[in-house]
Design goal:
Number of strands: 20
Radius of gyration: 26 Å
Distance between the termini: 44 Å
Structural class: alpha/beta
Shape: globular
Largest sheet: 7 strands, mixed
Helix content: 40-55%
Length: about 475
């Protein structure tokens, strides 16, 4: 415990004071009923609706995110989460009765959900509004006090979020801290009751280490190379259109974007032609038109631009073929929506999650090859199957592991608040959205109540022959 205390002493005074204010209120806030919790969230919703244009301006200033994508990928999912919580929170908060076994005759048991306490929400830059506010909604619904840290890579959106939270919540209930990596590192030294992090595996490991030091809960939403797999029964036109949309949405900077596509060798050229047509339909028929498109994001910073450009250049240098796209502009951090064919599993683009608007297409002869490749990599956050063959779909689901799966579409599982959203293994730990989010920020507390009648005294010492016989008899009920 002394080591943890020493770490806390290294935290800047302002951060420690913010944490202590939240900790001082956590019991009072946790006792609130559903009505009081929902009132806070209704105020949040009203301010979001009032300021949605300012949010769109902030995101455009950060990385030229189109207003339509702000509405569909930032505002809409949060509004859906708020509405789902409004409808169901009262039911989620009710104690849940559970069955009492015969040997516990005279008792009753239930499970109740209590807040974890003071929780930390660390959000990424790629969906900086959605991926901070959605977990915040779940944390407030569960009765916690919350400290939020938005990403420094999207400074305009970060300022918007800080003001939004200040105008919605008292600072001793929810507080936003802005800053760079040094602020994030300092926050990990504080003894939060739960750490919620969305980002990459490298930082995710540091968050998990911090949670372990504090013996706290942790939810990690990470990423990985999410594959799209087409079998020979797939509708190629529909698959191409949906994959292109999911891949190039947000400039390819989406943790559940199709990272790469597997297509049977006999259908490769037809699928590539369909992909090219989809890109031209979405963003323009020429490279000049696509560069001028108002519907396409830019890379978030120079480092991200250089990394993705390097992966593309090295892959093409090794023999890959650019089907569409390929142009770049360092000054504006523009990488065109790009499809690359003749890509092999050992190509540079296959070394890491791309997180940019470059889509490698790999050919296969047998689904066995694809299954083996998916199993050999880290478990992806999403896996997409395009097929009209139910047996093939079932096989790919059963023989692989992924955080979530869509069949004949992409990304949309993330929008359904009835589905838990989360990773597995390398792609994350835990889940949220809807009831899963309420539970992620809650402790399931077991409560057993003894009535007037009790059989427990029959098992008290001294362990006479009668007591031993009763214990054996009770055991035999379950043999």
């Amino acid at each position: 415990m002394r080591v943890v205390k020493q770490e806390e002493e290294l935290v800047p005074q302002g951060l420690r004071e913010a944490f202590e204010r939240l900790r001082a209120r956590r019991w009072e806030v946790g006792r609130r009923g559903p009505g009081e919790r929902l009132a806070r969230l209704e105020k949040l919703k009203a301010l979001i609706l009032e300021r949605r244009e300012a949010l769109a301006q902030a995101l455009h200033a950060d990385f030229r995110k189109p207003a339509a994508e702000v509405e569909s990928t930032e505002v809409l999912p949060v509004l859906m989460e708020l509405e789902h919580v409004r409808k169901h929170l009262k039911g989620w908060m009710k104690p849940r009765k559970v069955t009492t076994p015969l040997v516990l005759t005279g008792t009753s048991s239930h499970v109740r959900y209590e807040p974890r306490g003071v929780v930390l929400v660390m959000a990424p830059w790629n969906y900086p509004f959605n991926l901070l506010v959605a977990p915040l909604v779940d944390a407030v619904a569960a009765g916690n006090t919350v400290l939020c840290k938005p990403s420094e890579k999207t400074p305009n959106t970060s300022r918007f979020l800080a003001q939004l939270v200040r105008d919605t919540f008292p600072e001793d209930e929810v507080h936003v801290v802005e800053g760079g990596t040094e602020v994030g590192e300092a926050l990990l030294r504080l003894p939060f009751d739960h750490f919620f992090f969305t980002g990459g595996p490298r930082v995710g490991r540091r968050v998990m280490e911090a949670a372990a030091r504090h013996l706290a809960g942790v939810t990690l939403e990470l990423g990985g190379k999410s594959p799209a797999i087409l079998d020979t029964s797939a509708d190629l036109e529909a698959a191409a259109e949906r994959v292109a949309w999911g891949k190039f949405l947000n400039g390819g900077q989406t943790c559940i974007a199709p990272d790469h596509v597997w297509v049977h060798a006999s259908q490769e050229e037809a699928f590539l032609a369909a992909l090219k047509a989809a890109v031209e339909r979405f963003y323009g028929r020429t490279e000049e038109a696509r560069r001028a498109s108002a519907d396409f994001c830019r890379m978030v910073d120079d480092g991200a631009f250089a990394r993705v450009r390097g992966l593309l250049d090295r892959t093409v240098a090794q023999g890959a073929r650019v089907v569409v796209g390929g142009s770049v502009d360092a000054q504006t951090r523009f990488i065109a929506p790009t499809v690359v064919a003749d890509v092999t599993p050992d190509a540079p683009l296959m070394e890491e999650e791309i997180f940019g608007p470059v889509l490698p297409v790999l050919r296969y002869e047998s689904l066995d090859e694809v299954v083996a490749h998916v199993r050999a990599g880290g478990k992806p956050l999403a896996l997409y199957v395009f097929s009209q063959d139910d047996a093939a779909v079932e096989r790919l689901i059963q023989e692989t592991s992924a955080g979530g799966t869509c069949v004949n579409t992409v990304v949309l599982h993330n929008v359904n608040p009835h589905l838990p959203f989360g990773g597995v293994g390398h792609s994350g730990l835990g889940a949220y959205h809807g009831e899963a989010g309420f539970k992620a920020f809650s402790h399931e507390r077991a409560v057993l109540r003894q009535g007037r009648t009790s059989l427990a005294h029959l098992f008290f010492p001294p362990y006479t022959g009668k007591a031993r016989k009763l214990a054996r008899l009770a055991s035999r009920l379950f043999e």
